[in-house]
Amino acid sequence: MGSIVRAVAILALLGANLAPTQKLPWESGEPNNEKQFVKFLYPEQVTIAANNESVVELHFTVSPGFHINSHTPREKSLIPTQLIVAEPAGLTVRTVDFPQGEDFALTSFPNEKLSVYTGEFVLRAHVKAQAGEHLIQAQLRYQACDAMSCFPPRKAPVAVGVIAK
């Protein structure tokens, strides 16, 4: 079933619906004009069985020529990829399965293997929701690197409408 990451940062907004003027946990109030190296692809909306755990596959892509650290980098100084979720009332993200990272070596250090994601990758969120319509809003926090350098951490937005029947 892949490695289940129990240390996923899940920020619950208990008993409160997200109001349009309410800031999400990761919002600073300033527009994010930084170049993104990771893009959330799909799904935009899913239908699941109400009150039963379902798996929602979240598809991402890393820009060509770049890699991001996996959720379990081999070096402690590297920043792991994380999914930060704001849960609406009536919906819970129980765990998230991350794929295993690929081995990657820089040409300057061919014997040091990094654990990274490149190209397209999928996270599997285990979701349980009460009947109704919900919106999962999240951020994929990652650090992108090319062959020469790494960039400061970035956050790619994720939004998935969930219809629980």
Describe the structure.
With 165 residues, the protein is an all-beta fold. The chain has a single domain, classed as Immunoglobulins (Immunoglobulin-like), CATH 2.60.40.10. The protein is 0% helix and 50% strand. It has strands spanning 3-5, 10-12, 38-42, 45-48, 54-62, 67-69, 82-87, 91-98, 102-104, 114-117, 120-129, 132-142, 144-145, 154-164. The chain is elongated and about 55 Å long. The two termini are 26 Å apart. Mean pLDDT is 82; it is low at 1-23.
Distinctive features:
five-stranded antiparallel sheet, 165 residues, mainly beta, single chain, 14 strands, disordered N terminus, 0% helix
What's a quick, concise take on this entry?
0% of the residues lie in helices and 50% in strands. It has strands spanning 3-5, 10-12, 38-42, 45-48, 54-62, 67-69, 82-87, 91-98, 102-104, 114-117, 120-129, 132-142, 144-145, 154-164.
How is the topology of this model organized?
Blueprint: E1 3-5, E2 10-12, E3 38-42, E4 45-48, E5 54-62, E6 67-69, E7 82-87, E8 91-98, E9 102-104, E10 114-117, E11 120-129, E12 132-142, E13 144-145, E14 154-164
Parallel strand pairs: 2-7, 4-14
Antiparallel strand pairs: 1-8, 3-5, 5-11, 6-10, 6-13, 7-12, 8-11, 9-10, 12-14
Give the low-confidence spans: 1-23
Write the CATH architecture name. Sandwich
> SSE string, helix = H, strand = E?
EEEEEEEEEEEEEE
CATH fold-level name? Immunoglobulin-like
Query: What CATH first level would be assigned?
Result: Mainly Beta
- The average pLDDT value, as a whole number, equals 82
Taking the alpha carbons of the first and last residues, their distance comes to 26 Å
Helix content: under 10%
Radius of gyration: 17 Å
